[in-house]
């Protein structure tokens, strides 16, 4: 597998699977400053957004089976497992080989049979670590921003592809700013714009989220499309979710380096 393909896989997962439809309400801080009109608007929109998704506070773990399409001449089967508070594992099957990336809350490691390290678990490379840490936020970056005090602001109403949207901007220290567009009627995310490193260069990427389905009383996205800013629909790569399990039994050893 080429270095280019590996690099796109890491970027692809960060922008698509980082809690795109997984969230729970965050509690207000009693020491918060006096509300402004913008902060009141942000609070109201976040409440509507979280209500549209459903109560994910009862979800303690999840497993998703999906396929990446358009990144290579073949589909790439993938399994993503996550567990509260911030445990994450990705198993990517490429040409009969299994590529593993995992974070157990403290230790981030990987197995890449296409690198000289082969099937031996090694430390997550420095350039990949920020993306892995951001992806590990179980409830996504909007709730993480509220809980951890990351900059989060309401940027007003806009139009995207003929749809009215609420625009939110969130900045995560390790990976920078993302612009998130919520449909003004459903309050579900339909697009995300963010800059991410691809092959060592900062690239502006657009992620389109669609095919929301109700499962276990929760609204979840089953399709993501990603491309460089301005790319047409035919030029985007896709991630299609085939199945999602909420609260599956996942052993902690799945995330630990000794549990390869």
Automatic annotation (TrEMBL):
Tagged with keyword Signal: yes
In the record, which residues are listed under signal peptide?
A: 1-23
Keyword Signal assigned to the entry: answer is yes
Listed A to Z, the keywords are:
Signal
Spell out the protein name for this chain: Outer membrane lipoprotein-sorting protein
Organism source for this protein?
A: Undibacterium pigrum
């Amino acid at each position: 597998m080429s270095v280019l393909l590996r690099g796109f896989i890491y970027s692809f997962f960060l922008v698509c699977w980082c809690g795109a439809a997984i969230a729970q309400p965050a509690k207000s801080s009693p020491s918060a400053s006096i509300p402004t009109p913008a902060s009141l608007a942000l609070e109201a929109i976040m409440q509507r957004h979280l209500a549209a998704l459903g109560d994910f506070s009862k979800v303690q773990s999840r497993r998703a089976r999906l396929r990446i399409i358009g990144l290579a001449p073949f589909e790439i089967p993938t399994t993503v497992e996550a567990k509260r508070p911030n445990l994450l594992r990705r198993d990517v099957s490429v040409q009969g080989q299994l590529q593993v990336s995992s974070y157990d809350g403290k230790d981030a490691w990987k197995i890449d049979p296409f690198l000289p390290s082969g099937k031996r678990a090694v430390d997550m490379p420095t350039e990949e670590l920020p993306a892995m840490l951001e992806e590990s936020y179980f409830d996504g970056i909007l709730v993480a921003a509220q809980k951890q005090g990351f900059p989060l602001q309401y940027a007003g109403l806009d139009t995207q592809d003929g749809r009215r949207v609420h625009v939110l901007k969130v900045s995560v220290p390790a990976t920078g700013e993302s612009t998130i567009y919520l449909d003004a009627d459903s309050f579900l995310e339909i697009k995300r714009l963010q800059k991410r490193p691809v092959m060592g260069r900062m690239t502006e990427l657009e992620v389109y989220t669609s095919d929301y389905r109700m499962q276990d009383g929760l609204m979840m996205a089953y399709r993501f499309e990603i491309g460089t800013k301005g790319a047409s629909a035919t030029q985007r790569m896709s991630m299609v979710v085939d199945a999602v399990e909420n609260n599956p039994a996942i052993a902690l050893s799945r995330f630990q380096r000794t549990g390869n």
